[in-house]
Every structure is written in structure tokens, then in C-alpha cells.
Amino acid sequence: MKINLKQISEGFIIFILVFIISLNFFVLIKKPDIFTEAKKQLFSLNKGDNYSGRLNLWRLLVQNNDWFNAAKLESRLNETEINEYKFNYQPSELQKKIDFLNKKTDKSVEDYIELSRIELLLGQKENSL
Q1: Residue 119 half-sphere exposure, CB side, CA atoms within 13 Å?
Q2: Structure confidence by residue, pLDDT tens digits, 10-41
Q3: How many domains does the chain contain in total?
């Protein structure tokens, strides 16, 4: 009965890989990220959870400026629930707000903060500083 060093090292590597995979599944189940949570709700058999997941996923896509994929979900969402959100995140609307704030002569601190927030949403990090 000879103990082979190669077999021991292969067994150790397999053990480590199984441990890492198991840890990933445990973390995924216990603390999923917001995209995973929205997708889990989206595929729920409960209609309320399903709608909530679709709405949350739509909001996440909009916040990440992925309007193409967000538009795919819009047809199955209540228009009144998404109009205000679209108004606050749609690039064309955000640009209108920037133009308005830039033209304003007596800007308050809140105006500068809003201008910086909008520029961050549009990916204009240099301008937001």
C-alpha cells in the first residue's frame, strides 16, 4: 500500500475546488446581489412577486443606462409607475435639467448638488466634480 504524492495533490485540489464552489452557492443563496434578487422574483410563480421583480429589474437597467433591455420589459409594466422614473433617469430629460441649471444665474447649493448628481448619472464624472 503505497501512498502516491500525485494522488494526494489531486485529491487536495479537488477538495479545494469543491469547497470554493460550495461557498459560492452558499453566498449566492444567502446574500444575492440586487440583479440576482430581481431575476429570482421575475421568475416567481406568484404574480405579485413576478411583477415586482420585473419592475425592480427595469429600474436597475435604467439606472445602469441600459435603455435597450429596459424597453423590452416596459410592455408588461404599468406605465404610470415608470413614467416618473423615466423622467428622472432618461438621458434626454437629464440633459434638459442640466441645460436649465446651467442657464440659471443665481444657483443655490442644492442646484450645484443636483447638477453634480445629474452629471454623474450621465457618466460625466469630470464635470460633476
Answers
A1: 16
A2: 888 999 999 988 887 777 677 667 777 787 77
A3: 2
pLDDT in tens, 50-105: 888 888 888 888 888 788 888 888 888 888 888 888 777 778 888 888 889 889 88
Q: Is the pTM of this model over 0.85?
A: no
Domain range for 101 is 91-128
Using DSSP's 3-state secondary structure scheme, residue 75 falls into coil
Domain check: are 9 and 63 in the same one? yes
Residue 48 lies in a domain: yes
